[in-house]
């Protein structure tokens, strides 16, 4: 991120280094950046080189560690619905059928606050990351609440829905003060901290005719995509509520829909056993990814958008090249359907969670299973790497299980927390 002043106004500009790898020549790359960006003067060369070297070092971290069971938390008297962590990793929250949300200290596992006030299941929960000073909760009582993460005080209650609230997300980047939610009344509502901003409903032309199963933003927070049981995906303008595109092509329910990092492509997964790639500008389908023998339950891009991973009810996962659309490798080994799949931040490992009660870590290029994570007593409905890639979180209904990667010989089996969880949010049944 470049910060500069223009006309007395402070501005920022980002440079995405999506091609950076551990083998990239840093001096050559810095030279190319300076040629393309006049804001970076010769006096800043050393600083830029240092920043690129630090990013490159992060890509080399946590490639060959084994993961060890660190802690099991049973947080509520009734089953767990969702989990969310602040970006700093200092605390996390849990929602439950017991109508409460609880705030926990990550390092000690100590309960910090119990957020009481909802009159039904607390299902959708989120921090206002990256700040992490507020907590948003959505409930089957048809309301959302905004809380202080530090004191547990309720700031405000948002109303307007006529049915249960199932999805709650925070608008990213410059819109971080806006909260978006979807209810079973088939309405998507956007709120600032004090007032409703815009409402997207199925009554809009070419809107959805059935429940929405997936809701996500692009990187800038300017567009929303929604995937529905009506077999379609809709791209919306977040500021106006205007429909930009309707993506029609799947012949069964949508299971996932998301942008790649530079927002040039949209990936959709479906119960029709396929994934589709769409041009985000034109709304045209550019490829259909096939190969699975059963429903696709989850799909994702890696952090750079070069690779695509798919998980299926056929018990396998696949990796595709986003440019050639060819299958790179097939992941086989689970004895049940795979409900969740995610890349580590470095992009060289995949994590899968399955109904066979295990999670597995895979080598992206070879498809080799590197480790099986066991300990759950029921099917795993979600799993993810943390912000650094050295911690894994897995979840089954009613239980929160955290596995942690430790450097060889460091706190092995000692049950001590050496690092923190960062940047994980569990919404509905997905840890993102």
From TrEMBL:
WD repeats: 73-114, 115-157, 205-246, 247-288, 289-330, 331-372
Keyword hit for Repeat: yes
Highest taxon of the lineage: Eukaryota
SMART domains: WD40 (SM00320)
Keywords for this protein: Repeat, WD repeat
InterPro entries on file: WD40/YVTN_repeat-like_dom_sf, WD40_PAC1, WD40_repeat_CS, WD40_repeat_dom_sf, WD40_rpt
The UniProt record lists the keyword Signal: no
Name of this chain's protein: Dynein assembly factor with WDR repeat domains 1
Taxonomic lineage: Eukaryota, Metazoa, Chordata, Craniata, Vertebrata
